[in-house]
Each structure stands twice: as structure tokens, then as C-alpha cells.
Amino acid sequence: MIGIIGAMKIEVEALQSAMEDVRAEQVGNLTFFAGKLEGKDAVVVKCGIGKVNAALCAQTLILCYHPDILINTGVAGTLTDKLSVGDVAVSQGAVQHDLDTTALGDPAGLVPEANRVVLPTDEELAQKALGCVRAEGLNACLGVIASGDVFVSSPEKKAEIVRTFGAVACEMEGAAIAHAAFLSGVRVLNLRAISDSANGDSPVDFPAFCRKAAAHSTRITRALVRTL
Ligand code: ADE
User: Fold this and answer.
1) What are the tens digits of pLDDT across the range 137-151?
2) pTM
3) Which of 47, 40, 46 is nearest to 22 (CA)?
């Protein structure tokens, strides 16, 4: 079973429409679309924006559907010159850039219970995803993806995340999903198409390019699922 999570409707609706033998199942506030995607057993769900919504959804999905693989699909702000709008960031680890117990002597971003800063994401899935991005004629970059409960829209915040974590993209859910996956021993990958530059232009760029970016992440997610 492949679990696919997106934060916003625009990030999951095309995947849900592409499913066959699909049924909608309600668990608490979440509506899981379970069926076949590209011929594979899959469940696709919208978690809502932010790390808490994402963690609640990931844990519910893990407990109810016992996935072998979790894929987080959606859009992100770029933190590197290597990624522009429409390009795809493929995770090589996930960090929670807003988790801060440095005042107690911990490294920035140390995740309690996981007891690490960089939450692992699956290397084999990442390599497959990179192949899919290239096969679809898009530009990809492999790297750490940073999550936090903040829409990053200033050069200062952006620089701080890059300096502290060396991340290539920022969003608001991926590391929470990776956290839940890590605690349950589930393979996970984060696939994010770039919607904005995580700077002062983002409040205008994000709404303008979100649909295009979401379409790219959907395309790559479908291509990846075909290979599984
Ligand atoms: N998702 C897309 N763009 C983002 C940004 N700039 N900050 C946080 N999450 C995002």
C-alpha cells in the first residue's frame, strides 16, 4: 500500500481523480481516497497546512492503512539557485527548521523522540524520483527539505534556514510526515515542485504559480508510483 499526502486540495485532487476503484473513507476529520493509482494499491489524502495537521494525518494513515511507503507531494519555496519555479525538489532528509531548543544546549532542529536533526527519507525512492523528473523533462535537485509552521517570505528567514540546515526547499509539512514515518519505520519521500522563491515576492508568486507547481508534483508522483 502506498500512502500519498498533500497539504492542500490543489496538491491532491488530480491524484484522487486519477484513481480507480476508489472509495472515500472518513476517519475523524480526514477523508481518505483508497483504491488503485497507476494500478497500485494506494490511499490519497489532504492533510491540511502545517506540521501538526500533517503529523496527525500521517499517523492516522499509518495506523489505518499500514502503508509500505509514504509520499508527500506538493509545492515548496526554493532555497537554492538550482531550483526555479516548476522545478522539483526531491528529499534527501527532512528537517523541522522551527524546532529550537538551542537555549538548552541542543543543536538547532533537534527532534525530540527521533533524537536527530535530519529525519531520514528513502534514498532508493529518491533515486527513482530523480529518474522520473528527468524522464518528464523537468529539472530536479536532491537535498534536505525544511519544514516549519511559517510561510517563508523574507530573505533573512530564507538565509537563516540555508545557513543552519543547508536545505534546498522549504514548506510546512514534509518533516512532520517524515517524523511520523521514522517513528513507525515506514519508508518516506518528499516530492515538491517549486511555487515561489521564499522571499519578498512569495506572497504574489505563490498564488500565481501554485497550480503549475502542483501539476508538476502530481505528474512526478504518478510517474514514481508507476515504477513501484
Ligand atoms: N510552500 C510553498 N511556498 C512556501 C514558502 N515560501 N514557505 C513555506 N511553505 C511554502
Assistant:
1) 999 999 999 999 999
2) 0.97
3) 40
